[in-house]
Amino acid sequence: MGDRYTITALASVLSQRFNVEVTSGYKPKYNAAPTQLLPIITQGSKGISYFYWGQIPDWSNNKPLSNKLLFGSIEEITQKASLAKSLTQTRCIIPMDGYYEWKRISKKGRVAHRIIFGDNEIIGVAGLWEEFEGDEGEMHHTFKILTTSANEAIEPMNTRMPAIIERDKEEEWLKSNASAEELISMISPYPANKIHIYSVSPKIEDIKNEGEHLIKPFAPADQFGNYSLFD
After folding, report:
1. CATH second-level architecture of 5-215?
2. Helical H runs in 38-158?
3. Of the candidates 100, 97, 92, the residue with the CA atom closest to the CA atom of residue 157
4. Contact predicate 105/111, CB 8 Å
5. Which residue from 39, 165, 204, 231 has the least number of CB within 10 angstroms?
């Protein structure tokens, strides 16, 4: 799975979709990226919480983050005791209405694409959160996204995709005392024929870029601005 996603819904829409309180500080994200403070829903919470994706910015030292901090494989949950424990104790839902992948067009060139679900559906993606104590005793919170095998629509770009919780199982995912195996059964593959993919601006490459223009369809161009005829 690519390390960018979107949650562009208005606060009122997000609140209604997940039946949670959304604070006035919420802002739609068109280029959600690692180390950013992003909205998630945790067990026992009546509202949106804001956790850092992967790692807090001060700890990254401008170095690329390990995928292990950003993502967790749903297939590994039952094989690793630490992950299974996290699944039963620190689950969360990451609201998402799209995410980005890159299609290789040459040895160095790649074209950014946005993937959306159904009719611009907001999905609930499975995740795990962690709590860390800083040097001065302050508490920090991070989350990782759980992934599963990509369906045939996504596979040409990536072998992994978000692990999407069945909509009628989202409340149970957060509140259940179920085993890891039972929790995993709440995740179902998203139908390939309901996924829509279109090329977007290469400006998505820079995590500092933000705004609605990033999700608009854009003629296929690689990260260097060269247009492609082979998208």
Report:
1. Alpha-Beta Complex (3.90)
2. 57-60, 67-70, 81-89
3. 100
4. yes
5. 231
pTM summary value:
0.90
Rounded Cα distance between 185 and 215, Å, is 32
Residue reference for tokens 């829903």: 41
Q: How many CA atoms lie within 13 A of 149 on its CB side?
A: 4
Q: What is the pLDDT of residues 142-191, one digit of tens each?
A: 999 999 999 999 999 999 999 999 999 999 999 878 888 888 999 988 99
Residue with tokens 């009719």: 119
DSSP code per residue over the chain? --S-EEE---HHHHHHHHT-B--TT---EEEE-TTSEEEEEETT-SB-EEEEESS-HHHHTTPPPPHHHHEEEGGGTTT-HHHHHHHHHSEEEEEESEEEEEEE-SSS-EEEEEEEETTT--EEEEEEEEEEE-TTS-EEEEEEEEEEE--TTTTTT-SEEE-BBPGGGHHHHHH----HHHHHTTB-PPPGGGEEEEE--GGGGSTT--SGGGGS----BBTTS-B-S--
